[in-house]
Amino acid sequence: MEFTIMDNLSLVSIPKKARTKLQIVDHSSVTDSTKGMVNTLKIKCPPIEKNPAKSMSGGNQQKVVIGKWLLAEPELLIVDEPTRGIDVGAKYEVYSIINQLASDGKGIWVISSELEELMGICDRIIVMGNGEIKGELKKDEFDKEAIMKAAFHQEQKEGE
Amino acid sequence: MKITSLAFKRIQGGYNMGVFRTKTQKKKKSVRQILQGAFLSEYFILYLTIVCFVCVIPFVPKIITRSNLLNVMSNLWPLLVVAVGQTFVLLLGGIDLSQVSIIGVTSVLGTVLMSNSFNEDIFASTPLWGWLIGPEGGPMADSAAAIPVCILAMLLIGTLIGIFNGFFVAQYKMPPFMVTLVTQMFYLNFAIFLTQSRNVMGLPDGFKQLGKGYIGGIIPYAAILALLITMIGYFILDRLVLGKWIYATGANETASLVSGVPTKKVTVFCYAFSGFCAAAGSAIYSARLNMGRPTLGEDLTMDIVGAAVLGGTSLLGGKGKVCLWNLP
After folding, report:
1. pLDDT digits (tens, 9 = 90+) for A6-19
2. Interface check B1 vs A, CB under 8 A
3. Which residues of chain B have pLDDT under 50?
4. How many structural domains does chain A have?
């Protein structure tokens, strides 16, 4: 949090960008790639070289974390509660980032407890309850009731 | 949506205004602002030292004579080397108290290996007598390669002790203060035990040159060594990925770990480098005294940590740097 936004963004991907065996930091490529990421994710922030990450709002900090991993060019991105505690506008941005990535052919694994969110962005939902997989739903079967039923089915039976 | 976008705009506007304001400040700097800048600067202590030095000149003109300056500087070269190592550990938020005893151990072991003669009356009672040293000197006595080999051995021993410290701090999450305090006490007494508190004498002339010799009559060898190690430290912290990792680990270890930083390796490296620097400092100290002394660095702890902290390194970790030429 005390570090500059650029250091935060580049921490994961920096070894990939390094030159030679000694791992010298390639400052120009780090600057280019982080600035590019700020533009593509539409992160609203002060100049990234000098300002600490804590100077941004929560939503933008969340986007920095996503951008940090995107710079590492993953094939599968696992996001756990990607929109917890951030405002509506930033939520929308996060969803569009996830959709954009999915259309680029990357795998996204969203873990969330918000049903509307999952129904909006997922192609397939796997319901878990009590540490077990309780059900799997395809996009056209999405239904709040069905999901909740799958999650609590076991307990209901026991209750009867 | 509208409200949030408005808020974003406001935030942006606020930032822009901030940037704008600082820019106008820079254009018309008043005396007060310059003073304020100097007081708040990272280099305030450096400025203060220079001012103090200049103020003293009229009263004690001796202070700027060549011999005095050289003397002061030559006292400081080994301290600089050791403090560079300490800075690395402080950056992690740790502290390395064992440096002082690393100085003692390496001083004794290094000089024992290269010494040319031992007084039998004094050294016969030491545990090294008979198998490692004899009346005709240590194993490397009178050998042409004695000095470089022994210095390498000192650096190796220092690094190993550092790795030992780092391993316990990184692997078992022990408080660095305790780990290094224990190793400090252990190695200090180990050094005393090795020579039964005697000083090792009879070192080759070349070694003495390392501490007292000058290149071209002005630049001491010790200065070159010290500056070399400082440059290595600067290079690691400022240019290498490793440096970024050290800062990140020091500022927030958990966040660094989940961001793919090998924090344990980084920790071990920092302690190893600290031990390495202590050994290098020990080589210079021993060369200056022209003997190996088990209690060589005993009272230096405060000097070393003090030097690093006064230089702007935070004891909490993550802040500070080794700089040479990027002074304002």
Report:
1. 777 777 766 666 55
2. yes
3. 1-26, 325-328
4. 2
